[in-house]
Amino acid sequence: MARFLLTAMPFTGHLSPTLPVARALLARGHDVRFYTGSAFRDRVEASGAVFVPWQAAPDFDENDLTPTFPRLVGEKGLRQLLINVADLFIGTAPAQVADLEAEWNREPWDVMVADEVSIGGVLAAEKLSFPWVTLAVLPLNIPGKHGPPSGMGLAPGRNPFTKTRDAALRAAVPLFSRPLREPLAQARAAAGLPPSKLTMDKLVFSRDLVVASGSPLLDYGRTDRPAWLEFVGELRSPAPASAVLPPWWGDLDGRSVVHVTQGTQNIDPDDLIRPALEALGGLDVLVVVATGVPGRDDLPFPVPANARVGGFLPYAELLPRVDAVVTNGGWGGTLAALGHGIPLVIAGGDLDKPEIAARVAWAGAGVNLKTGTPTAAHVRAGVDRVRDDPSFRDAAQRVGAELRSLGGPERAADLIEALAARG
Could you read off the pLDDT of 313-342 as tens digits, one per residue? Predict the structure, then answer.
């Protein structure tokens, strides 16, 4: 038996792919603790892991970050991304280190498994000298020798001009990272660590093992990835034996279904849900909308007669009945749809969403609307394309087959278990 501590930033999109790995390790008889925010206590304890709460680290509401991180008020796009990283991921890191050091002193572990934005976990591993694994629950942004820096929504260049562009952008990474240098230096000092020249994109990835959700087809087929990287496909738990279905579920019978979701971050329904409903209201389809907030089963505006709305929906039951997905491009939802061979229309406007949209479009499995606030006409054109052109579904099915072939949580547990056995 080995002792593992898993840590994930307290967001649904980070916890959901990490918990299946915890379950797989527990099923093998290992001791598993899970460090995250208090909002996820019930889910962690239901998995069988021992819950270790954020205590010194500030708890926050993932659906409303601004009370805890006021600099985010009114921000979107690149500035939102930089403030997110500086205030939320880096700014909370010293307090995370304090929590983890207290837990380590209570009872050490053999290996830590951390999602790639758990900066506190990375700094704790450096301070306390224990081995750690990166569990990449976002589209892989590990630095490479080719292509543009990840996160820019750009596919690797294929001609001399775009390859030169990529090289220039890689060289400019230190410049792009400049706003994060001081917050990172302050976090290291507060955690009792010496200065380091490592930038964020290099700091957060283990040099022992990176276990990545996704697949090569969603990584531009790049060949410059390190030997210690392993893709494991989709990280999801088995479907519950009996999910609670909304009362309108029978309306799906015999209908062509388009699912619309705006994820759990930046969930103003005017951004995507409203134009999607305007676009699809006149079609002979049933439009199934997820608001992204548990219990929020309605919208602040009228919906067309062919629409049904829920907060969170049982994807295991829904996705086999869906013909197309309109989404803001959250990674977990994107992988779930592709795992079922469903083509996507992606309106990715902020954070990692433009990158996800670009990867799906590169794979041929969807349409990239290149904005987070599309018009109804843009949404309608995208949905018509993925429904009328069979190449999108064919590509989505190829990606889905690759995702399913990579082993999922069981393969992740194999790799992590092997690292612990090596010591």
Answer: 888 899 999 999 999 998 999 999 999 999
* 109 occurs within a structural domain: yes
Q: Which CATH number does the domain housing residue 227 bear? A: 3.40.50.2000
Q: Which residues, 6+ apart, have CB-to-CB distance to 259 below 8 Å?
A: 287, 288, 289, 290, 318, 319, 322, 324, 325, 326, 327, 337
Question: CB–CB of 303/309 below 8 Å?
Answer: yes
d(CA 78, CA 98): 30
Token pair 């039951």 is found at: 317
Q: Which two tokens stand for residue 396?
A: 């989505």
Say which amino acid occupies 194: P
- pLDDT, tens digit (0-9, with 9 covering 90-100), for 136-145: 999 998 888 8
| 391 plus 413 within the same structural domain | no
**Whether residue 144 sits in one domain with residue 57:** yes
Q: Does the pLDDT at position 266 exceed 70?
A: no
Same domain for 196 and 327? Answer: no
| DSSP structure class, residue 204 | T
Mean pLDDT of 348-371: 92
Residues of the domain holding 7: 3-233+406-422
The reply to whether 336 falls in a domain is yes
Residue 325's nearest CA partner among 266, 375, 285, 371 is 285
d(CA 289, CA 308): 6
Same domain for 153 and 16: yes
Rounded to two decimals, the pTM is 0.90
Supply the mean pLDDT for the chain.
91
Q: How many domains does the chain have?
A: 2
Residue type (1 letter), 397? Q
Is there a single domain that holds both residue 389 and residue 412?
no
